[in-house]
Amino acid sequence: MGGGEHVPVLLEEAVAALAVRPDGTYVDATFGRGGHARAILAQLAPAGRLFAFDRDPAAAASASGIGDPRFVFRQCWFSQLADELAALGVVAVDGVLLDLGISSPQIDDPARGFSFRVDGPLDMRMDPARGESAAAFLARVPARELTEVIRDYGEERFAQSIARAIIAARAVAPVVGTRQLAAIVAQAIGARPRGDRGQDPATRTFQALRIFLNRELAELALILPRVVPMLATRGRLAVVSFHSLEDRIVKRFLASASQPFGGDPRLARLPIRTAALPPAPLTLVGRAIRPTEREVAANPRARSATLRIAERTPHPVPAGFGAAPGR
Ligand SMILES: C[S@@+](CC[C@H](N)C(=O)[O-])C[C@H]1O[C@@H](n2cnc3c(N)ncnc32)[C@H](O)[C@@H]1O
Q1: How far apart are CA 161 and CA 143, in angstroms?
Q2: Angstrom distance (rounded) from CA 303 to CA 292
Q3: Which residue in 70, 210, 213, 295 has the fewest CB atoms around it within 10 Å?
Q4: Is 241 close to ligand 1, i.e. is its CB under 6 Å away?
């Protein structure tokens, strides 16, 4: 397994959000299996270019199958995208797409350790060459930190019970398998009502560990301000997020970057007339877009997806913009 299909979410909407110019230069920062990338390439003329990135070696292998002179792929974490583009001699781009989170082939390959449905080693790294596996993390993490990770990134009510159960289990035997972890979580939660019927008891814990180990929210907070100076005037930023933690970061960032003060709250508090403030580097394009019921019925991954779109204004990026990650 592992070479499976990925059904892209909000495919048409996200590509439309980029308002692709046939001779433009575009970035797909989350190539996955290239569903969005192929749709962008289909809209490009021979002079157009698409630079794609993904940190997963399996995505890199998939990208190597696209033999198209307009297409360039680099395996990297997307927070490094500006350096990668600079090394490729790209100074400005007309659109950047971020289709966040995990791909279906990542979940479906038991060897990657993301799935609680099929047994596999507890890895959960999108880039297995960097960082700590879930098994290594669970072997050393103190109870309090584990509780925080499960609570903050999984929005899990029973985080403390689950963390305690994992710590107790590892005193008996190392926690190294996905089914083993799922069983520990299920037992810790027991018959307590969850209020989200139909969801596996381990869903939130697995989500939490995956987000934490892959630094998903930190990566998102880093990339957003770094994209803005890369965009040519009228260049588009389109972000598809898959849960409220991600969407909150995207929503807040776009709200602040589309304010005349460039999102610097200190300036907003000063008694300065709006016209004297640095104009906003981004402008919002429409409201958040969510999948139709039909798409959700056909692809359950789409259930909590949100697409947000912004466009680069002609105004310079305010000094210091993006200097503080997470703004
Ligand atoms: C939802 S999938 C993208 C699917 C893709 N749009 C398609 O149509 O096949 C998200 C992809 O982003 C990658 N990814 C997530 N966070 C990343 C990061 N910080 N840097 C680089 N790649 C990342 C994952 O490895 C995964 O392949």
Answers
A1: 10
A2: 9
A3: 70
A4: no
Residues 234 and 158 sit within 8 Å (Cβ to Cβ) = no
Q: Which of 10, 12, 31, 239 to mutate to test the pocket of ligand 1 (most atoms within 8 A of CB)?
A: 31
Ligand 1 atom at minimum distance from 105 CA? 27
| Ligand 1, atom 5: closest residue by C-alpha | 32
One DSSP character per residue, 187-225 reads HHHTT---SSTTS-TTHHHHHHHHHHHTTHHHHHHHHHH
Ligand 1 binding pocket includes 13 (Cβ within 6 Å): no
The verdict on the CB of residue 178 being under 6 Å from ligand 1 is no
Question: Hey, which of 12, 30, 62 would you mutate to test ligand 1's pocket, going by the most ligand atoms within 8 Å of its Cβ?
Answer: 30
Q: Which atom of ligand 1 is nearest to the CA of 76?
A: 21
Residue type, 52: A
pTM above 0.90, yes or no: yes
Question: Ligand 1 within 6 A of 226 CB?
Answer: no
pLDDT in tens, the chain (327 residues): 344 678 899 999 999 999 999 999 999 999 999 999 999 999 999 999 999 999 999 999 999 999 999 999 999 999 999 999 999 999 999 999 999 999 999 999 999 999 998 999 999 999 999 999 999 999 999 999 999 999 999 999 999 999 999 999 999 999 999 999 999 999 999 866 555 556 789 999 999 999 999 999 999 999 999 999 999 999 999 999 999 999 999 999 999 999 887 666 676 677 777 777 778 999 999 999 999 999 999 998 899 999 999 999 999 887 766 554 433
